[in-house]
Design brief:
11 helices; 4-stranded parallel β-sheet; alpha/beta; about 325 residues; Rossmann fold; about 40% helix; 2 domains
Length: about 325
């Protein structure tokens, strides 16, 4: 991987196809042989900014950094929203005095961009309103385990569909799919899809890398898929933003269940969690040990993030 072109991990479309595959392979290697990487971050400290509550992101980064021999410092909501108590630029410059990298889970993408602009150390986007690249990377590590265990390039043959709310998770998934060359189908209710800017970006990347991208609001157009992905219909922090009964009515036809899996001939169902069971996914499917890889994805968050940290902080 050309490290001179890989200074931060902010958004999926900032990776080249080669870099994406390298990160996926590295994550798989670290997962298989963690002892070989046990001192990769020895003597290094990572500052972790969390504006939003977290289970998987906090735990997977903290424990992943420890497995690599590094030290993580959690900076929670007690510090307030970035840019309010002090400028984002000052926050970034101060943390750069102490930390070797900055991990940030924030409300707004502008905060991530501000940190990266002013920090003198690598910045990793652990979630913002626009992207969730650590989740998408973990998801493609999981898909590689499911469909490309013999040859990583087989990953490009996978057909992946996302069903539900167009959000930061679907943005990152379809961007990384387009970068890698994976056929991707996005199914969202009308008025709940991605921005036009995001669609244009994905279509251009898919065309460049030889994959198909389909966007529809008709669940019957899902086609044949290898894996179906869904996420909560109401994003964290927006629970009171709209009448829930109205939202549930709009999304009801988009529930991922055994019937939809059979219709699409899909063998894998994915969810980034936390799940609102019996809304976007049935409990029966979420707990289906043959089809559901939700906890495999959760574990792979740690290994994927370890790959990013090793790539950014070691030669």
């Amino acid at each position: 991987m050309n490290m001179s072109e890989f200074k931060h991990f902010l958004a999926d479309d900032q990776l080249s196809k080669a870099q994406a595959f390298t990160l996926i392979e590295l994550a798989l290697n670290i997962k298989q042989s963690p002892k070989q990487y046990a001192q990769s971050l020895a003597g290094k400290s990572v500052a972790m900014i969390f504006e939003k509550p977290s289970l998987r992101t906090h735990v997977s980064f903290d424990m992943g950094i420890a497995k690599l021999g590094g030290h993580a410092l959690y900076l929670g909501q007690q510090n307030g929203k970035l840019g309010e108590r002090e400028r984002v630029s000052d926050y970034a410059k101060n943390l750069s005095c102490y930390a070797d990298a900055i991990v940030a889970r924030v409300f707004e993408n502008s905060a991530i961009e501000g940190l990266a602009e002013h920090a003198s150390v690598p910045v990793i986007n652990a979630l913002c309103d626009k992207y969730h690249p650590c989740q998408a990377l973990a998801d493609f590590v999981t898909l590689a385990e499911c469909f490309a265990s013999q040859n990583i390039t087989d990953l490009a043959k996978v057909k992946l569909a996302y069903v539900g709310d167009g959000n930061n998770v679907s943005n990152s998934l379809m961007l990384m799919a387009a970068v890698i060359g994976v056929d991707f189908t996005l199914v969202c209710p009308q008025a709940y899809g991605p921005s036009e800017e995001m669609l244009v970006k994905v279509q251009a990347l898919a065309s460049k890398n030889g994959s198909a991208f389909t966007y529809t609001s008709d669940i019957n157009d899902i086609g044949t898929q290898d894996a179906i992905y869904t996420d909560t219909w109401v994003s964290m922090g927006n629970e009171g933003a709209e009448d829930k009964a109205q939202l549930l009515a709009a999304f009801k036809p988009y529930q991922v269940n055994h019937e939809l899996m059979a219709k699409a001939k899909a063998s894998v169902v994915m969810h980034c969690q936390p799940a609102h069971l019996e809304e976007e996914i049935t409990t029966e499917l979420f707990d289906d040990e043959e089809l559901s890889v939700v906890f495999q994805e959760a574990e792979n968050r740690m290994w994927a993030q370890c790959a990013v940290l090793v790539s950014l902080l070691t030669d």
